[in-house]
Please model this.
Amino acid sequence: MSVVRDEAGVSRSSQWLLLGLSVMVSLLLAKSVFDMFRGALHDPSYQSRVVTPRGELAADEQSTIDLFREASGGVVYITTKSVERDRFSFDLRERPQGTGTGFIYDTKGFIVTNFHVILNADAATVTLSDQSSWSARFVGAEPDQDIAVLKIDAPVDRLKALAIGTSSDLQVGQKVFAIGNPFGFDQTLTTGVISGLGREITSVTERKIRGVIQTDAAINPGNSGGPLLDSAGRLIGVNTAIYSPSGAYAGIGFAVPVDTVNRIVPDLIRTGRVARPTLGIMPDDRIPRRLGIEGVAVMRVYPGSGAEEAGIQPMRQDRSGAIVLGDIILAINDVSTPNEQALLDTLRDFKVGETVRLTLIRGREQTQVDVVLQAR
Model:
């Protein structure tokens, strides 16, 4: 009689024997477990355990709860859509594009958010904390600072504007609170501290956003445009970015400081654009670089500008036709301007009408001159 064997040389009958033994062992184990608990007793009169009274919440817990209840009414959920034409029917149709967070700036219905939240959107809807939704109109944006303003026509009694704070006196270690809609979960609160001040991040236009607040409060996709609050419930920043190789929370988040926001938003509401301050010069950093100087040369001074009124000297020709180097700007209000980009970035920290002090090289001497900034 032949015996059927598999590739390992084990007979078919041996396999069946092993399978039978395995089943028998399993049954014996199950029976031993059943025997072990067969004597367990039931108590038909058993009741749920009495709940231990918790007592009062800790003061800091109650403070956080109160802050969220007070501020969450001013936080909104933003959904954006793009409009495209069907390639077969040529009908226009909307398609969801993205989501983000914003906050109520005032009771006139102005909503502040990040510019990148509405970038490339054709329509936006704002959902308030009471779950009512409103079509939003675009008011204006400052892409270089990642700030945008929308407008909704909601009744005043539905609009709860956030209290505005200041970012000039913040300190590392202060408690902060972020409210937003990460991953579409609305009205989410995260807490943390200010981890750093004076940071720089890059906006969607590749320009530097200066003076940024760093925090370890969890900021995830969908939090963008939401408020960063201090322990008094005041707005101190707009959550705008995270630092994370994976794109999710990694303990480092950034917020545009409220002082920057408060300087930009009124201009956007008034005119739809930001009034950019200017010295009234044509700058160039190539000549100083060739001379080994970290500064910006004044190539031209525009008529009627603050620079002309302050006596800033441009590059010119003398009577013999030789080129005479004009003033070289080294700093604005003691903030160094080693190149043209640094000069432009520094000017954005000021308002039209403010006076700044320029440190410059004139001839062989270093001097200082005050200039009144005008609108570009």
Remarks:
- The longest helix spans residues 12-37.
- The mean pLDDT is 86.
- The chain has seven helices and 23 strands.
